[in-house]
């Protein structure tokens, strides 16, 4: 009986093994399904989509791990089946004598294949079908999950775009950066060309300092320079009187121009005024006869043949300097050592045009268009590779038919300039449409300094930044009107409003405004992320701005402030001059408040007290006790400006800056001190009423009582 049981078990050992393996696999499969169902139910109960995705991913990974385990078990079971089948085939041979002695009287019977073969095949197919079912079910679950994830991801993308713009605008408000609709990370692309305007008239920076600016401007996204020389160009021959005594030397200027292109890839667009703003030429006795009006050297008379001859000579010298190779260049040097494709001939703010005896019989529009086309034709005839650019303001009042009939669109490209924040107030949509019908392409111009005050010391950074950001929106909206689009944006930085005006903001003082606006227009929007803003890559700061630690944004601008604390703690070309200008700005405000308080708001040091030499000595002493100290402080700042500005400017510009900004306050303090000392010398005072001098009465139009009685006698009624 025992022997028969052993024989039966031995013959059915494969069936028992397969049955046990099937039970194990069935249990694992049931366990995997239960866990997957439980986690899926928990995942669907979460209220937020983001938590659904975070929980769905681990559930899917867990299910895939279970499937992998089952696949490995199935493969192991198949290997066991094959091994048992091979062993069973080997057992069909008669046992050896040693095996017979081991098993005793047990007799092995050769089994038939009809009873044994179907069992392993059926079990093998069973495992394969179960595996396929599991994989198919998991694939359906994965597909359903992916469809849901895709739908949720699409919603998240729509929500994240709106949320990102909202968060972006909120951060701009915290930083004090102007917010313009449509301008942001998902907004339009940046202008293709970004030119930086260098206004050299009357306050020329040293070329060594300008070379320091080149890598900074290039790193911030500048593509070229718009250089306005005026009297700083080294004119020669008959035009030599046009050049100032401190004009650049030709060799130094050409070296700077080649450095800009060869080392930094910045193109050059020279700007030569050829109609208005010719004060530096027409002020001279040699060219006085070419003025539109004898009393004003502002604009030239285009009706005189000598005028065109003079302008052609000026343009020829400027163009040839920018085209000739340097003196130490090899014979194989190309004709153009710099990228020079456009020439700007100015023609803005032409005052009193058409008022001389020769121009009076013609229309103003005809005079302007004929003059501009003649100049452009001269340039294009001799240098056909050059394109001519003009300022647009004289075109704004002309009709579409006047512009089209003149064919000016075939000769020049307008540069549309507006420095205010409301650009459409000056350039309405109808004017954009007119320009697009006349000109295939155009340029635009913003400002980073020299636009909000004729004699400012520090430019209002926030206002300039808003002007540039609004130009980005206008370019994106109006560029499609032109067949060749808008070429780019020029960031102007005026040094004087005209040749006779005093200095406005110096270039080093305007560097923070330039860097902020240039990095913004080059990116197409102001980046609020300090790691993504090129501005911080250029600035060398003693600390890394981190709003999360300090609780304050890394850049803070305010309408009534001229700067951000960021530029006071970082290094960049001209940073010492900028920091000095900020201290001088505060000191001058302090002195002005001190003088105004004593002269206009006090009762003892007013002009009335000084004229009548009538005041309280104690009060006068109190009001003038700080005056000597303030005079010495301003003298110290004058000496400091001389040391700092010598790194950037020559002695003439330094002296002009001190005389314009510091000396008036020193002079006012001296006058106040002298008035106070005069009042302190008196020891006795007259009785009231105090007499009024006859001269003062006449200036004020007052009459005495005696004069009034005489008038009444002469006119009794």
Automatic annotation (TrEMBL):
<dbReference type="InterPro" id="IPR017853">
    <property type="entry name" value="GH"/>
</dbReference>
<dbReference type="InterPro" id="IPR038901">
    <property type="entry name" value="HEXDC-like"/>
</dbReference>
<dbReference type="GO" id="GO:0015929">
    <property type="term" value="F:hexosaminidase activity"/>
</dbReference>
<feature type="region of interest" description="Disordered">
    <location>
        <begin position="84"/>
        <end position="104"/>
    </location>
</feature>
<keyword id="KW-0732">Signal</keyword>
<protein>
    <submittedName>
        <fullName>Hexosaminidase D</fullName>
    </submittedName>
</protein>
